[in-house]
Amino acid sequence: MSVPRRTAVDYVEDVSPGSGTLPPRAWYASSDAKALSLNGEWLFRLSPAAGAEDDSFAREGFDAGGWGRIAVPGHWVLQGHGSPVYTNHRYPFPVDPPRVPTENPTGDHLRVFDLPPDWPDLGDGGAVLRFEGVESCARVWLNGTELGTFKGSRLPHEFAVGRLLRTAGNVLAVRVHQWSSGSYLEDQDQWWLPGVFRDVTLSHRPVDGVRDFFVHAGYDHRAGTGTLRVDSAVPGRVTVPALGVDVPTGEPVTVPAKPWSAEVPRLYDGVLATRGERVPLRIGFRTVEISDGLLKVNGRPVLLKGVNRHEWHPQRGRALDPATMREDVLLMKRHNINAVRTSHYPPHPLFLDLCDEYGLWVIDECDLETHGFAEAGWRDNPVDDDRWTPALLDRAARMVERDKNHPSVVLWSLGNEAGTGRGLTAMAEWIHGRDPSRPVHYEGDPDCRDTDVYTRMYAPHAEVERIGRGLDGGPRKRRRLPFLLCEYAHAMGNGPGGLADYQRLFESYERLQGGFVWEWIDHGIAHPELGYAYGGDFGEELHDGNFVCDGLLFPDRRPSPGLAEYGKVIEPVGIAGDGGNGTVRVTDKYDTADLSALAFSWSYQVDGETVASGPLPVPPLAPGESADVRLPAPPPDAPPGEAHWLVRAALAADAPWAARGHVVAWGQFPASRRTAPRVPATARPRTGDGVLALGPGTFDARTGALVAIGEVAVGGLRLDVWRAPTDNDEGAAWQSDPRCGPRWRAIGLHRMRHRLDGVECGEDALTVRTRVAPAGRELGLSAVYRWTSDGNRLRLAVRVVPEGDWTVPLPRLGIRFGLRTADRVRWFGGGPGEAYPDTRTAAAVGRWQAAVDDLQTPYVRPQENGARIDVRWAELGGLRVEGDPLFLLTARRWTTERLDAAAHRTDLVPGDTVWVNLDHAHHGIGSRSCGPGPLPRYHLRPEPAEFSFVFSPLPS
Ligand code: GAL
């Protein structure tokens, strides 16, 4: 006997977007109509399958006594019910659209509420129940009556509920399924986190209240006027007091106005008043267009210095509170970021309000990704199957209608990594028709059939340059479009490298209008034993490990060195030294703003200490203009030493996003040469008692191994070429170009053996010859250590010559040794943060100090980190080291081997030795965890090299 499969849960697998919801409309934060937040504690029951429990819980009088509690907004898997799952693009269930697994965790949510005493009479108008976001599918009842169902996790859904409300004891029941047909459209690279994760609100809808409205506010840059027209489903009046505007809805009015831009986000407060309701408006006048092959706002091309932002909080997942959203915006503004792609779904609507207010260009992206279909050559891809088109159009409409009144939104994006197909074309056509004022973006269509900009992800520098020069060929339409990198510079772990090289290209070719670093924040989940958990830490069957931790912020929103680097690279003011003729070249790199908001200053530094400083008058440059500004004469009484000019541009007055004095740009350049340390080899080696003494150095006479410098015991000093591979060294498995980490390991660079070939004690030097090579290989490095001294200081010159057939770059080249104690490090060189050859723009030469523990960069998955670059000298553990040439310094309480073996920060247990690396060079960082590796000029080629260090004991 065959059993018909159709049941009460069919809606879960139905391709339709849902039933019973109201048409989408514009969002607004508040109005004079009453609203009741239904956020808070709800009753909760989790069952293992969509049909495991009947719907009696929605009925009145149901006894939920045995149920648990859950915070709404929230994800149940982050509140002790089940666990999260992370996959990049593979669906974590069998792919058989639109069917989903029988094991379909289902969360029943219940909330009983009374209307507040001041709620209008129930006969007066209606009421709307609104869900801002529920993953992935919901069925809703109020007071025992089913309202309907919906999908589209990061999109709003509303039901008319007026007729069902009562003053007290309303029972709201929401059944949420983790998997639904909608899951096939939501295959973004992130945690799968079911739940009612955005606000739930009940709003009174007065008779003749505002329904949908569309604020059209264009700016004519030639005339300096704004034209405003507010179309409203319910007619009314629009007033903007500051502009003297008082017009009926639907009627355009042109007034002199200031434009809105991300740099100067001028908003005008207004009101849309219908007979029944007054809704506050925040109007920003701006016109977006593609003309002359360029993306222009208010007549000028813009250079997007962007980030991809997923919503993330380490405890609450995608249930973000307003304070966290504001923190994101402030951090972006303080790091010179001017654009956000809301990867890969419309964000909480408040975030866009913040973008309007503080000034950020936004690409608003639809909640659509079907990337998992790539595994089977895009067969059955929903975006190329007409049955799914209504669901796609529903998603497009819910995004556009909700967000259309934000001046910050300058482009609509159809979604991410969904292949190509008729459904996307239908979405683009609908969007173009509904809102011709904004261009459409979508990366996945190489022909740009449906899009108004050409965008790519992770294109290497050389290709970006070709595109900039217009040499990229391709379909005719595409060749005429402006170019964006909607994703580049994969910020996973240490890195990304090569940002400055991309920015140089963006600033050199008009067609290149910037990009969006992938991504804003690591999606690590706070975990009691692991610190931050990533894919696999919850026993997922399929997962993609720490690929989910690839942001410029650590999960706790502490900026990573990558963010410091990015903020420096995209500074809105160029400040460049002239090579010694006493001037500095200042360039206004804003798109629209002059430099009047900034105050410039100079300082003159000797050996990293500021010895004189003062204000620097800079002419009021317009965007794109440069001026050579004369610096003062160097202070006559400056002490001798290595001198630098440091010129800063800081906020002249408090801005909404940072206080007066906040530095937005700086440039540093040498004012004199550095003199390398000189140590004449005047001391003679002395032997006795199995030890050899040379100046302050004590060596093992047999092996030539350094034992102590003065009173400071020094252990295990030897050549080191290994670094704990970074995520970018490891590279992504799908990369076709060679990945360093696996190749290094295959050769055995992590297990080099050191063979002693000879110890020669000469007249004025101790020479130790070694060969450093991995087992099983012919290749190796000859390393000769030559020690000399002037009696007080000990100089080590290391000469390295590669032998055999090296086909890989070296990870690092330098020496390492152990010190028994070292709590603090002082150094003169690049700082204050981590820097590697292609991530070094933010390192300023100065005197810095830090605790050894604070030199570590807390990458969620431990890896090489924390190097300080261009170090002239450093002091730690009772020793002073000077370098010739400059060196990179790391110091940590565990070995590189331990660092390499750790999977989480909590695996790193401090030992009783501080391991110090003094590196002549490091291989670059690059971005190969998803994009290209380091540019060839940052490769550490195995070539003959010589470098030296001068050690001296510090007075105790
Ligand atoms: C892109 C994708 C992002 C993310 C990134 C790698 O292909 O659009 O969602 O997966 O790669 O982290």
UniProtKB/TrEMBL annotation:
It holds the Pfam family Glyco_hydro_2_N. InterPro entries: B-gal_small/dom_5, Bact_Beta-galactosidase, Beta-gal/glucu_dom_sf, Gal_mutarotase_sf_dom, Galactose-bd-like_sf, GH, GH-type_carb-bd, Glyco_hydro_2. Its EC number is 3.2.1.23. One of its GO terms (molecular function) is carbohydrate binding. It comes from the Bacteria. GO terms for biological process: lactose catabolic process. It is an enzyme of class 3 (hydrolase). Keywords: Glycosidase, Hydrolase. GO terms for cellular component: beta-galactosidase complex. Residues 692-952 form the Beta galactosidase small chain/ domain. The keyword Hydrolase applies. It catalyses: Hydrolysis of terminal non-reducing beta-D-galactose residues in beta-D-galactosides. PANTHER family: BETA-GALACTOSIDASE. Belongs to the glycosyl hydrolase 2 family. This is Beta-galactosidase. It comes from Streptomyces misionensis.
